[in-house]
Write a structure and sequence with these properties.
about 350 residues, mainly alpha, 13 helices, about 75% helix, globular, Probable magnesium transporter, transport, transmembrane, Mg_trans_NIPA, magnesium
Length: about 350
C-alpha cells in the first residue's frame, strides 16, 4: 500500500510534458545544434581565409569572401531563430539552461573536425551537461496558457516584476556610469554584470514578443496592440546594450573566463526573472523546484569543467588571473574557446 501510494504521489507530481513544452524542447535542442556547429564551421572558414589572406586575428577581413564563413553565420542565425521560437512555447527555466548543450556540440565537433583534443575531464563535463539538462527537462513547469499579449503585459506590470525590473535597470545604469570608467578594463564582473542584468529583461521581452507572434500566426492578430511594439522596442534596446558590453568583455578578457561567468550570471538572472514574471514555480511542488536547481548546478559544473579542461589541454596555468590577454593557436588564429549560446549569438565577427 505504501509503495502504491508513493508511486501515485510521484505520478501526481510529474504528469509529463505538455505539447508546447515538447515543441520548445525540440526548438531549443535544434538551436544548440545549429549554434554549436556554426562555431566550428566559422572557424574552418577563418582558417581557410587566413591561409590566402590577412587573418582576422590581426585585423584582416578576408573571411568575408569565404563561403564557409558565411555558411557558419547562416547556421548561427538559424539557431537563434529556433531559440527565439522556443521561448514562445516553453518557459525560460527550460529553454535558457539548454544553451549549455551548444558547448557539447562544439566540443565534440572540435575534437572530430578541428582535431582539438578533448580531455577525459572534458568528456565528464559533457556528461554533466547532459545529465543536468535531462533533469531540468523532466521537471520543467508546464507553460502557462496565454491568449493575448495583454495578458503578458499584465504580468510584466505587476508590482513584483516592476520592482525587479527597476532594480535591474538601476543596477545596470549604476555600473555603466560609476564602475565602467574606473574598473571596466580591470574587473571582468563589470561588463559581464551589465550584460547579464540587461539580458534577463531581454529574454522576458523576447518571450513576450514570441508569444505575440505565435498567436498572430495562429489567427489571433496581436500586432495592433501597442504593447507588442513596446516589447519589440525593449528587445532591441536590451540586445544592443548586451552586444556592446559583451564585445567589450570579450575584447578585454580571455573567453575562457568570460564564457562560464556570463553563463552562470545570465542564466541565474533569467530564471529569477521568469519565476517572478511568469510565476513558473507556482505550478510546481518543492521537490520539482529543488530537482530543477540540482540540474542547473550540474550543468554549471559541467560548463566550468569543460572550460578548465580546455586550459589544461592548451597548457595554460591552472589558476587564471582576473584579467588575461587573449592568445592565439598554433596557426595564429584567436582561440575563442567553446561558445555559449548568448556569447556566440551576440558576438560580432
Amino acid at each position: 500500500m505504501a509503495e502504491s501510494g508513493g508511486g501515485g504521489g510521484w505520478r501526481d507530481s510529474y504528469r509529463g510534458m505538455s505539447s508546447d513544452n515538447i515543441k520548445g524542447l525540440v526548438l531549443a535542442i535544434s538551436s544548440s545544434l545549429f549554434i554549436g556547429a556554426s562555431f566550428i564551421v566559422k572557424k574552418k572558414g577563418l582558417k581557410k581565409a587566413g591561409a590566402t589572406g590577412t587573418r582576422a586575428g590581426v585585423g584582416g577581413y578576408s573571411y568575408l569572401y569565404e563561403p564557409l564563413w558565411w555558411i557558419g553565420v547562416t547556421t548561427m542565425l538559424l539557431g537563434e531563430i529556433a531559440n527565439f521560437a522556443a521561448y514562445a512555447f516553453a518557459p525560460a527555466i527550460l529553454v535558457t539552461p539548454l544553451g549549455a548543450l551548444s558547448i557539447i556540440i562544439s566540443a565534440v565537433l572540435a575534437h572530430i573536425i578541428l582535431l582539438e583534443k578533448l580531455h577525459i575531464f572534458g568528456v565528464l563535463g559533457c556528461a554533466l551537461c547532459v545529465v543536468g539538462s535531462t533533469t531540468i527537462v523532466l521537471h520543467a513547469p508546464q507553460e502557462q496558457e496565454i491568449g493575448s499579449v495583454l495578458e503578458v503585459w499584465n504580468l510584466a506590470t505587476e508590482p513584483a516584476f516592476m520592482f525587479y525590473a527597476s532594480l535591474i535597470i538601476g543596477a545596470a545604469v549604476f555600473l555603466i556610469f560609476r564602475y565602467v570608467p574606473q574598473y571596466g578594463q580591470t574587473n571582468v564582473m563589470v561588463y559581464i554584470g551589465i550584460c547579464s542584468l540587461v539580458g534577463s529583461l531581454s529574454v522576458m521581452s523576447v518571450k513576450a514578443l514570441g508569444i505575440a507572434l505565435k498567436l498572430t500566426f495562429s489567427g489571433t492578430n496581436q500586432l495592433f496592440y501597442p504593447q507588442t511594439w513596446v516589447f519589440t522596442l525593449v528587445v532591441l534596446t536590451c540586445v544592443v546594450t548586451q552586444l556592446n558590453y559583451l564585445n567589450k568583455a570579450l575584447d578585454t578578457f580571455n573567453t575562457a573566463i568570460v564564457s562560464p561567468i556570463y553563463y552562470v550570471m545570465f542564466t541565474s538572472l533569467t530564471i529569477l526573472a521568469s519565476v517572478i514574471m511568469f510565476k513558473d514555480w507556482d505550478r510546481q511542488n518543492g521537490t520539482q523546484i529543488v530537482t530543477e536547481m540540482c540540474g542547473f548546478v550540474t550543468i554549471l559544473s559541467g560548463t566550468f569543467l569543460l572550460h578548465r579542461t580546455k586550459d589544461m589541454v592548451e597548457g595554460s596555468p591552472v589558476i587564471l588571473p582576473v584579467r588575461i590577454s587573449k592568445h592565439a593557436d598554433e596557426d595564429g588564429f584567436e582561440s575563442e574557446g567553446i561558445p555559449l549560446r548568448r556569447q556566440e549569438s551576440l558576438r560580432s565577427p
